[in-house]
Each structure stands twice: as structure tokens, then as C-alpha cells.
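Service request form, structural biology core

Requester: graduate student, group of Dr. S.
Request type: structure prediction, single chain
Budget code: on file
Notes: please return the result as C-alpha cells.

Sequence provided:
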Amino acid sequence: MPRDLALSNGRLLVMFDRQYRIRDLYFPHVGKENHGTGHAFRFGVWAGGQFSWMGPEWSPDLRYADATMETEVLARHPGLGVELRCNDGVDFAENVLIRRVEVRNLSDRPREIRCFFHHDFHILGNEVGDTAFYSPEVGALLHYKENRYFLINCKVNGVAGVEQFACGAKEVGTAEGTWRDAEDGVLSGNPVAQGSVDSTLGVSLTVPAGGSAEFHYWMAAGRDFHEVSVINSVVKDKSPEELLRRTRNYWRLWVCKDRRGTADLPSKIVDRYRQSLLLIHTQIDHDGGILAANDTDISELARDTYSYVWPRDGALVSSALMHAGHSGAAARFLGFCSRVISPNGYLRHKYNPDGSLASTWHGYVRDGKPVLPIQEDETALVIWALGEYFDLYQRIDETAPFYRGLATRPADFLVDYVDQQTGLPLPSFDLWEERWGVHAFTVAAVIAGLRAAASLATGFGETERADRYRACADRMLEGARAVLWNERAQRFARMATPGAGGYTLDMTMDASLFGLVLLGALPPDDPQAVSTLDQVKERLWVRTDIGGMARYENDYYQQVESRDTARVAGNPWFVCTLWLARYTFRTLAGEMADHL
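Core staff response, request fulfilled:
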């Protein structure tokens, strides 16, 4: 299941599911470590002797507040006669989640209504050796293991401090956890538990008939007791209301700072645009890593996740952010790449957000011979992103430190990593991470990377180096036209596999062929590009009420429709559909320029 709400400050990432339950909680990096691992942190309500955990019967409506990284959640339980209005935010400066809860009494008489927050930590990714305890020193619940601490507190009727709590065992024998203790509306008050543990915090409110009452809850993350205690003091001294307010204002300032191109757009489009920028930012780590996705549920398929930094994905996201006027994340990403790139000039498959090498299925041996386990487009696109950074912002002092590590050294690698007969790149894995060969998308990316490196080299006064990069890019384009073009089909192949008798072409229609134009290898009006991409559009458009572009013909991944592949070539992918949109814009822009 995807996560419906994400909140982050670059160090603490909190992910809520569709039922408004925290499921993933990452600290101290976005994407590493996950201290929730998909287990539900429950949120429940007791009223009039009845109890209900947040779920479908509450019909939670989950949204973000306008132009900011703060939630607006509305949930109503007709049976309990209770409505909740909630706001959540991760403070932009302190590593703390702040939650405001307004409880509305829908009955015609005053009532005591109790709210319960359950904490199912799996600190450092597992439940072994955790401790949960109540600390009278700070008046709060704490969970810890080794150098990871989480402090949970609340403020009710203007008074901070936890008064109702329980700590206990879970996942051991018949022990289900303290959330069961909450279901009668009264917690045991057990002050400590070790091993596989959880805790529950309770809040009691007296709510008038038809009226409402509110309280605040917070969860601080740190490396030791002192660190989370200091954060707790900051929340109490400044007030949770103030931290929510300042975080709301910070993100509105951030997302609205560049208004270019939005003045004439419908407000709904502008809202979606800004929300997209904020959502992208939730997946960016403070050390520069841009994470693909953070969703534990996907681990059920292969016991792995997408909580990794793919250099290609980061380069493409960086480009989008730069064109949206946000250069900071792109600069930090380039810094991340400069720290992890091989001394030989290439980037590996993927990395953890702390810069360590991530898991891979790319082998080091193929057909009994050693190979580089890389996707060459990843290296090329980082050079291309650096080129865009320099072209858009002309920040010479900021670009200079990256010039050798992210421009000339990797470009030298690209120049050497070619077939001397054709000028095409040597085989590597494709961007879908499924096939080994020479891919049209990779060719386009390498050409883009070499051209960017040439431009940078010219700017830094190394003209001979620049000439060498341009010559390699030009010859590679000639090789693509000679090898990848299929005259009979009147389109480029998505892949060519070298063999003893030459190259074998894979003519499967693939949306990645848009890269030939989008990365600038070919102009949008190039006849071969037009013929290829017209066929791609026709074949891969999904002919259902949903629409969208498939990745490629008969795409197996998460396949829903396998019988009528002529109508549904594969599941529609957002990125492929957006490629089509960008290609269409470029084509229209060219046509408009011709008429000026």
C-alpha cells in the first residue's frame, strides 16, 4: 500500500497510511533507519463506554493544508458521535512531530471523550532489545535502543505531561500489546517494559454538547535522552501551537518563492504543482540523497524496498526542481554524488541515504567474464544535471568543486566505455533494470552527459577536452542512427545486443525512447525521432477510462490486464505519461517557433 501522507524535515520522515495511522518513521535519514517498519501506530477514541480505532468506519479524509507541509484530516464516527479535526507537521528545525487534535462532541449532552495513541516501535528496524518507559523526570513516555531515542508527550488544557499510559510486551507468545489495554478506556499505568515492547498514551477531555475541545501531542526523535529532552523543552517553552505555525509558514514561504509561469494557470493546477514540490521534498535527505520512495509494504514482494538513492532518479528530480526555481536540493544532491562516485568515474546501481552502497541485483560476472554492474545512464545524467545547474544559475564558485569529480572524470569514463567500431556505449543495464545491452535511452543520456561535460570544459577553459567530448557524442549519435535505426519498421530499437555477427535489435515498443528527444540527442522535428515516437504514442497509450502511457509492450510489472495487450500494453506509468506531455510541448514549441 502507498502512504497517503508524508511529513519530513530532511532528518525525520513520518508516513501515514490511508487509515491515518503512522506506518513508517525514518530517522536520522530520510529512508534510513525505519523505526516503524510498516507496523501500525494506532489512534483510537473511547466515548460513552464504546471504543473504536481509527479505520474505515471513521471515513478519514486526508489532505494537506494549502501550499504547506501540514495535514488537514477530518474523521467522523457516527456510532460514537465523535468528529476529529487534526493537523500534523514535522517541525522544519527540530526533529519532532507535532499533532493538534480537535475533538467534537456530536451528541446533545456533555461527555468525557478519551483519545489513545499507540506506539509500535521497531527501533533500528527490529523489535529485539527495545525499552519503553515512563519518565517522571520529563513527564513523558520514551522508547529507546542503543543511540536512538523517541520521546512522546502531550498538552491538555494548557498543561504538558503524560498522565495516562501503559508500557508492555507485544509479539511474544499471546501478548498483542498495550493497544488492547486501551480498549476498555483505561490504561494500566505499567511504567516500563523491555524486549519486544509497545506503549499507549491516553488523553481525557470533557467536551460540551455539540462543542469541541482540543489537545496537542508530540513525538521527538534523537540520539540520546538529553537530545530528546531538550526538544521536549523547546516544544513546551515555545508551545506546540507555535511550532505548527512556524512550520506551516516556512513551507509556504519555500514553495511559493518562485511564481514564474503560474500567474495565468488555473488555481487547481497551481495547487497541485505546489503540492507536488512539497511531496518531492519529503523524500529528500538532509545529506543530499533523493530517495525513490519510502514504503515498507513493497518489501513483501522481494524483502527489499525503494528507500534508496538512484543517481538517475536524483538527477531527473534535481533538474525538475532547478527549473522550478529550487536549487538547494539539487546542489546537495550533486554534493552527495561527489562523495559516492567511484574514483574510476562511474556511479553504481544505487546507494543508501548515508552514502553507503545499497543492495543490488547487478552481477559482476556475465557469460563468465567480469563486467561493471552499472547502468551507464546514471553516471551520464549526473553530469547532465551538473551542466543544467551551471547553465541555469551560473554559480561558478559552487560548480567548481564538482568540475573534476562530476564532469571531467566521469566524462572520461564515458569516452573510454565505448565500442571502438560503432562508437556506441558498451553494454550495461537499462533504466528499467531488466535487460543488459546497448539501450536507446542510455545512448541519449550519454550523449547528453558528454555535451554537458563539453560545455563545462569550455567554460573552464579546457577546449581540447571539450572537443574530445563533443566528438565522442557526435560519433555516438552516428552509431545510433547506423545501428539502432530499423529501416523496415521506420523506428529506433529500444536495445541492441552485440554478438559475434553484429547487433541484434529488440524492437519492443518502449516509452524510454522519448529520451532521444527529451535529453536532446535528437531535435523534436528530426524525421527519425518523429516516426519513432509517433509509433510509441500510438502503441503504448492505454485505451481505458484511465488512459496514460505504458512502459513498454506487455509490461509484466504489477500487470493487471494480460489478455487484451493490444488495448492495454501495460499498466500506465505517471513518468511515461509525463514524458509524452513533455515531448508534445517540445513539438508544439517547435511548430510555434516556425510560424514566428
